[in-house]
## 1
Amino acid sequence: MSKPVKKLCVLISGNGSNLQAIIDEIAAKRLNAEVCGVISNRPQAYGLERAKAAGIPAVCLDHTQYDDRDTYDKALKLQIDEFGAEGVVLAGFMRILTPEFVNSFSGKLMNIHPSLLPKYKGLNTHQRAIDNGDSEHGVSVHFVTPELDGGPVIIQSRVPVFEDDTPSELAERVQEQERRIYPLVLSWYCDGRLVMRNNKAVLDEHELPESGYASD
């Protein structure tokens, strides 16, 4: 008997390459999910076109049209609820979310961040890794909690930092890993294997370490 398909809402702000990876994995039947809707806070986000091309409802909630963060997040939650989402996927969504919004989707809200958390929370992670002379950099998928980029890590993937790297070269290397590990994590979540419990990521009833699953 096949497992029920889980409905995911994907939030984007730009190109939507991780959204495309999710769409492709669903089409290949490696991810037991349906993208029930895509929301962008920026009208020109190319990810909206990716969604439309795949026949997915796509909505722009332009944050500049709202008076404050609370008002925007209430509208965002309403739209996600209208889509009937059972999970919310932040895929390059460049907004800091209010604690009220985050808590309303506790355990159902995931993000991908281009660093080996807890290093380099926030922006410009590739430049910061280069400036600090790091020999490795990477990406983390984590559950979202009210602390910025501070929720429990589910998985990390590491990449080398070469001496003559530019931020864009390093970003490309990281993004290749992003497109591999995000659909994997979502498959765990959609199959009921992954949950957040007591502010920890739990996979197959085993609490994951702070650096996440198979981080080596």
## 2
Amino acid sequence: MSRITGVLQALKDQGRKALIPFITAGDPAPDQTVALMHTLVDAGADIIELGVPFSDPMADGPVIQLACERALVHGTSLRQVLGMVRTFRETDDRTPVVLMGYLNPMEAMGYGAFADLAKASGVDGILTVDLPPEEADEVAPLFTARELDAIFLLSPTTTDDRIRAISEHSSGYVYYVSFKGVTGAQGINVAEVAEKVQHIHELTALPVAVGFGIRDAKTAADVGKVSDGVIVGSVLVDTIANNQDNPEQLKKALTDLLHPMREALDGLAS
């Protein structure tokens, strides 16, 4: 059983929902990332999605695009990101870490070399935004052989046949994008999300985590009622941008934002 599956199963047994924050590695500076990861855990994170900075993050809106730019100014590389995970593992061997990014940096390193280093560094899952399962024949077996969960995206327009096909290639959980558009956009419709997630659950046994549009405790709780977990990204990354010159204030701001979401999700179990 992977670390991701173990955490999600334990939460399910407790009647609780997963809180999965996303930050971009190297933002606002590489030497702050590991400390921010620990801050997220202390604030209630169950799983961390760690973005690998990329020069053309096509699925992301302006907030995360700017985060990638800030990280790349410091020269943050895929190899450095894996080093951050390795350092995080020195004091946290429980919290799963999912790398979220794009195919090009992995291809440049070499898929086999990347998979080996990811496993050795303590990574638990890989979500590659621009790698559909139909084109993953070369990469997916490398992940499976190293017990790295392959996580794929589902959207409001994903057909039933494709949901089944993606689920067959997935492990850990599937990531449901709550609306059509890029990260950071507004206007999540919880009723529509609930209907779609219920339908996805009829087609796959994997947990369904919902991302895009989770900005506060109320939204987290509303979406948590109908899913197995919520993924919080742009609002955290925006908080980093607004506090980038004060590391201690940044930690407090992230905690003040994430902790109420943790409490709201835990309130669903009572």
## 3
Amino acid sequence: MSFVTADLCDRFSGQENFQIAEPLFRHFGGNRRFCGRISTLKVFEDNSLVRTALEEKGYDRVLVVDGGGSRRCALFGDTLAGLAVENGWRGIIIYGCIRGVELIDQMPIGVMALNTHPLRSSKHGEGHRDVMITFAGVNFKQDHYLYADADGIIVSETKLD
């Protein structure tokens, strides 16, 4: 991966369907730069669908999870990060919290989340998959492309690199 989000902004920011996320997220994981086609989840304090998605082959995809911005529990942790690495996911964006960050930071995956929280989420199997989700001023849609690095997150309808 040789992209830099600042360079992508310089080249493509005037184009339609090019979005830049508000700077809300912290970086975790061993890969601070990642990109891929988007898969989406909309959940609230329940990570059952997160596990279900990560059990599937990622095929160089990025899982974007709208957790409603909740800071009352973690939707993702080191066990799920290991599953994501094993199945070829490139990165995870969590609009919520994660846990187990010391172990996640040693894994070859990119993770961005609002913050950390030690409490695990509930597991009721509730939520929606592959729907458009909106947070940080961006509409995340299935099969659009996400680029993330130390400068931020970019989403484009088309592949940019």
